[in-house]
What does this fold into?
Amino acid sequence: MNITALQFLAAATSSEGVDPWILAFSVITVAVTIWMGFRSAKSSKSASDFFVAGRSVSVGWNASAISGEYLSAASFMGVAGMVMSSGYDALWYPVCYACGYLFLLLFIAGPLRRFGAYTIPDFAEGRYDSSVFRKIAVCFVLFIGFFYTMPQMKGAGTTLAYIFQTVDFRDTAFQFMAPTDAMGKLTAGIPYSLGVLVVGAVITLNVALGGMKGITLVQAVQYWIKMFAISAPVFVLMAVFGSYGQNLSLNKSAYDSSPPPAVERTEMPERGHRLVMPEKTAPPDEAWVAPFGPLTSKAAKAAGLSPEETKPYSLLYTFSLIVAIVCGTAGLPHILVRFYTNPDGIAAKRTTMWVMILIGVFYVFPPVFGVLGRNFLPELYTGLSGIKGTDQVVLKLPTLIREKYGILGSILSGITCAGAFAAFMSTFSGLLVSMTSALAHDVYGRMLRPQSSPEQRMKMFKWCAVLVGVVSVGLGSQVEQLDINFMVGQAFAIAAASYFPLLFMSVWWRGMTMMGAATGMLTGGLCALVCVTLTSISDIMAKTAKAAAEASKIAWEPDALNAFWIGHPLLRILAEQPALWAVPLAITLMIVVSKATRKTIPADIRMKMLVLHAPEALGLKQEYIQEQQGPAH
Amino acid sequence: MSDPIHDDSDFIHSEEFLHGLMRRQLKLSIACALAFIILLFGLPLMNYLAPELMAQRVGGFTLTWLILGVLFFPYVWIIARLFITRSIALENAEVQVAAEGNKRQS
It folds into this structure.
């Protein structure tokens, strides 16, 4: 036992490669997170503390916590990676992630807080007096949640594999742990799934012990860690390699003349120069820097259309992507649950304003990494899209200045690694809390055992956390080949087609019936879910098959599904980005079915609408709750 | 005695008050949303229709990159700021309307 532990340590430390700075920063971030979770576990006792932090979190704390929870691995690593791999089109992601909050602010934040419920399923039940509808709403907390945890797990796997890339298990007792490359040979480093497992276990434990009160504090601190970790390295890197604009100007669009001065990798390139791009795998300048590049034109290109013919397809893709993320932000369950921690509707609005500022400032920085990465780390283009691909650019770019400034490069890389840990840990904890709440509070507390005691529910919360954690790790270990940011975009599309129409229509249209709401949400959400799953699976299949074909030097033969996409680029775009049709479909169904079942509009609808929209100063909510509780029990 | 649902004698529970309330708030929200949507959907359209203009260089950035990557954020903050100031003012006015309406009826 002791001998194996020693051998393990020897294997992990014998190699010269694990950078002590990077390791130290990462370990400190993880340790602080766990310590804070445990510390606050002592102070969170009641069930209400666990679920919504006693509803007494101040605007500043709450805004930092929402931002901390929202800025996931996709924002921290994925956006930079995607800007590097796809260029201009990828900018829509950060912009819509930040600006989607405006929709939340304009239409949903205030009324939802006034209605007063713990979770979205609570709202669904309260608004329509239907416990069946609660069950349907709970399903989507889980669907969206699991889709959203997969990219967080990919972030975890990628970061750990990066930190331990030089660990060598090959000639030790732990040979079974050494990862294999595309050719099936054992290589140095740790397997992607080990990172997923370790991080998943740590966070699950933390949530099971701390609950949400702990998480609010942890999340708020995590925001500031992430903000510092993304901005400080950018300023140092820009001082060394030239400004954002200067580096962008090296990428020539179709309307610029004179190609940029490129140099071979010998030493650190001067400002105003950049490294030579690998021809096959890096997108050419004019496609990268201009709109309608590789990301949005992929399907049409695969179908063999000419550049002029692909442009309308790209425009369509862009619009659908915008709708998915803007509407999806307004329908994310783990974000919405946080609005209930505001003391009142005005505080909910103020919180949203601050969230928009905090995350807006953050999102200016990741694309800078993408631009610098293109100019100075072009070798990432040649990696597979797995853990060696562009998703690593945020972690790796700071190490470039090691050659000139020595230890500063390691420290900066350590800082970005700490930020990455903060990113996937905070988002995963938030998702875990909202999914676990759905299971413990809704499924167990309301459906299975309504008469259970608070102690039983608290115990159940812990077991549900473990269950959700295990499923998340299992799913996360399967998605090594998909882009982090792309996967998050898919989760947004499902939220946009299910919760957004539900919340928007329930708040503003009093003619909605339970049947209408359920039909619209189910149809829209399930259509989006099926389409998105289909495209993700076919992408994984295509990438695996392509890598295998390349290894054995034969041409890639598309399977039936991929062949179908190649033949029907329009369908492929609409399946990959379903929001453009799924959101209107859900809303139309809601209107049509509600009109048909007009008789079932809740009897006290006027009072409900008053509670949603009247200022709290009028004190209508208390009246409503009393009136509700009177006859019901 | 006073059933809050069916009691129309109380002004704040009247159809008239609710209708006005929702209409004013929705109008404000839609006006702000329109300002946002014009830029959100206008920018891809401009990229499509006037690619040369949007590729103009401004301090190294292409015009469209500068708008999307940097300027979009402050624009949205301004809309959000306007909305919050207006909607808080609106709520205060509504509380007053409700108080006056109740006085008139009693």
